[in-house]
């Protein structure tokens, strides 16, 4: 059995979950504890999630996992056809940069209310683990996150601009058509990357973030983007490509997708 070590709310982990489901590959999810996760992951994982253990292979990083899965299993998502394959890989790398910007904007806003970020990170864990999100645990976790993601005001402002630029790029690549894929006429890793990593801001129905309430600074950005064709494209990928593929890959879980994202 394949094992995916993950954070349930991580959009990078969602990218890999979607990738696995699109290939029809069964896997078991193991939620690791934020802050303690480097010690809980398999050796050679790199210390960040997602991490996929596939038999004797351990692969970390969503992009590296995508390359590994394409090399070993079909259907190909990095190379949907000979002519467009290079484009899918190039867009995956370029659009993947938005993932860190989304984290910076959301986490930075959450840090303005002490304890809010830690409660979010721990929300899907058992009660005993959520206790780490109280008292001294808050300061330790949030200081580490702020340092890792550079959550100063200048970086957050630059990330906000980068997110808007990415939505504009999506609109240019798809000619404002929510039915248009980014590379050829079928789903590729480029589509999965963009739709997953912008997911926390768009909050598509059935996604891990659909029932979360974001701070005012994030809501302001959501309102600015709400009527953009690029946001309609993200919603379309979730509605047309994510739900059906998940159900096909996980028939025992059925629909909707809540079972994927909650362990409470």
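Q: What amino acid sequence fits the structure above?
A:
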């Amino acid at each position: 059995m394949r094992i995916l070590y993950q954070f349930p709310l991580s959009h990078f982990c969602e990218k890999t979950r979607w990738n696995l489901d699109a290939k029809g590959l069964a896997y078991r999810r193991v939620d690791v504890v934020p802050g303690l996760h480097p010690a809980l992951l398999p050796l050679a994982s790199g210390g960040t999630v997602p991490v996929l253990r596939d038999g004797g292979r351990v692969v970390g990083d969503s992009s590296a996992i995508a390359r590994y899965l394409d090399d070993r299993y079909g259907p190909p998502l990095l190379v949907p056809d000979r002519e467009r394959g290079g484009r899918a890989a190039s867009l995956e790398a370029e659009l993947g940069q938005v993932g860190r910007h989304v984290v910076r904007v959301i986490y930075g806003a959450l840090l303005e209310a002490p304890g809010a970020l830690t409660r979010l990170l721990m929300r899907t864990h058992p009660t005993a683990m959520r206790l780490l999100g109280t008292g001294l645990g808050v300061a330790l976790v949030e200081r580490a996150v702020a340092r890792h993601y550079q959550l100063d005001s200048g970086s957050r402002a630059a990330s906000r601009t980068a997110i808007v630029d990415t939505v504009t790029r999506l609109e240019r690549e798809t000619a404002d058509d929510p039915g248009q894929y980014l590379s050829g006429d079928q789903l590729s890793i480029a589509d999965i990357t963009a739709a997953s990593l912008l997911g926390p801001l768009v909050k598509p129905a059935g996604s891990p973030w659909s029932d979360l309430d974001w701070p005012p600074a994030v809501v302001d950005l959501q309102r600015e983007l709400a009527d953009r064709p690029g946001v309609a494209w993200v919603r379309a990928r979730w509605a047309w490509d994510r739900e059906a593929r998940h159900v096909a890959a996980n028939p025992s879980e059925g629909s909707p997708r809540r079972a994927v994202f909650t362990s409470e």
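Q: And what stands out in the fold?
A: The two ends are 23 Å apart (CA to CA).
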